[in-house]
Write a structure and sequence with these properties.
Arc Repressor Mutant, subunit A; 33% strand; six-stranded antiparallel β-sheet; Chorismate lyase; 236 residues; 6 helices; alpha+beta; homodimer; globular; DNA-binding
Chain lengths: 236, 236
DNA sequence: ATTTACTACTTGTATATACAAGTGCAAATT
DNA sequence: AATTTGCACTTGTATATACAAGTAGTAAAT
């Protein structure tokens, strides 16, 4: 009786969906906070909490005295920030292909993030995926999940589904936040092959730690990104 | 009688300072929300607003039933998110050197961000700086400010001072948020020279738009970053 | 001795309310 | 006609309060 989604979160999801579906178009004003109160039967602080989430993620921009203006979606691929319930990696025209299926193995030595004793002992579930935006390979990512209480995970298919969704629906795990490091590297042979680029092609690497609602449970991914055509976007 | 800093912001600044100064060390618990209420003569929503800012920026992590745990500072150079009042680019061991002093010129064609009519007509204040972390050149950044109501700006010295501070103190301009794009590129000749790297060295480029409290006033910077030794870090 | 239950704390969510401050438009004044 | 004033709206900030839910230690029961 704990993990039920709070009302401000429900409202956030609803408004976000409406914006993405075009019910509210860029430049439009969202209903005022008081209207949203009345329509959704909640109070203004609750509405404001929902709107703040939307504003932080760039869906709307609030202007005192005017209202909440719906923003036009960023031109690139959003990945720098993500919502707690959905992967923020694009949405349309995104295909995912599992290159290496989930399997259990020990953690790599000198892992990109520090691990707890429990994590290290449990080993990790490892898999690799390639993600296409408009049929162009843009992301190549390697995921590492601690092998702790994730029954039947290795037999799941990961094609065209969000890891975030699987974790939420089947394991009640939600991402609450995380940490990321970004650097530029040269494409090594493996990357060259996946992206079809030449040697020395500059590639962006993201190392991410995803922290979840399950205490002490984090998972990790290393994402290689070809920013030649699609760059990463984010707000702060 | 508008731009006075709100109380939650004051509390945020105070706690942030204390954390940075080591009054509260990583792993410590911050005083509980109720204690902070009593000490600072504010109510819990106000305290929570301040703590949320700290949590978003990774200074603390809140744990229900326990308290607010102070986090250890990230290992890299924080730039992916920034606070409204201080530049988030490092803090210690950071030197800045102006390579091209501020001068007025027309905006470049095909600018990295869309400009309003007013901005384009006014021209821009342009300057270049090189930033050193521990005496190693890490950032090379080009700044573009709309030439609108910024008296005597071009005669200011920009060595070892934060642009954010200058704008805040002399022009009452505060950064409220912004947008950024990230991509990986090869070092061109200019970059090679500044960073002392070879041809084809991968470099990270950030294009940033900073939105301010002055309506319609944004400024821009293009930051080249050598992530060989220092990577960019951020939370989400 | 081990387990259980309780208690006193913590943060999370939600309501209700009030006033300040910015925006835009219409009405009143000049 | 042009300017100013005022009003009705918006979001921003702040207070006061209540209960839910997670944590950790202690006391009680087995």
């Amino acid at each position: 009786m704990c993990a039920q989604t709070p009302r401000y979160r429900e409202l956030y999801e609803k408004l976000r969906k409406h914006i993405l579906e075009g019910v509210y178009k860029p430049g439009d004003l969202l209903p005022s906070e008081n209207e949203l109160c009345a329509v959704n039967q909640v109070t203004r602080p609750t509405v404001r909490q929902a709107l703040n989430l939307l504003a932080n993620e760039g869906y709307i921009k609030k202007r005192q005295g005017l209202g909440s203006v719906v923003q036009s979606p960023p031109r690139g691929v959003g990945i720098l920030s993500l919502s707690g319930t959905t992967s923020a990696i694009g949405s349309d025209n995104l295909k995912t292909e599992a290159i290496v299926k989930p399997n259990v193995r020990p953690w790599p030595p000198n892992f990109i993030f520090e691990l707890t004793e429990v994590e290290r002992e449990s080993g990790c579930i490892y898999f690799e995926r390639l993600r296409f935006v408009n049929d162009i390979p843009i992301f190549y990512d390697i995921s590492y999940l601690p092998n702790i209480n994730l029954p039947r995970f290795t037999s799941r298919s990961l094609n065209n589904v969000s890891l975030f969704d699987i974790l939420r629906e089947h394991y009640q795990i939600q991402v609450k936040g995380g940490e990321q490091n970004i650097l530029a590297i040269k494409a090594d042979e493996r990357i060259q092959e996946h992206f079809g680029v030449k040697k020395n092609h500059p590639i962006l690497r993201l190392d991410r730690k995803m922290e979840t609602n399950r205490e002490g449970f984090s998972f990790y991914s290393q994402i290689y990104c070809n920013t030649e055509d699609y760059r990463l976007t984010g707000r702060f």
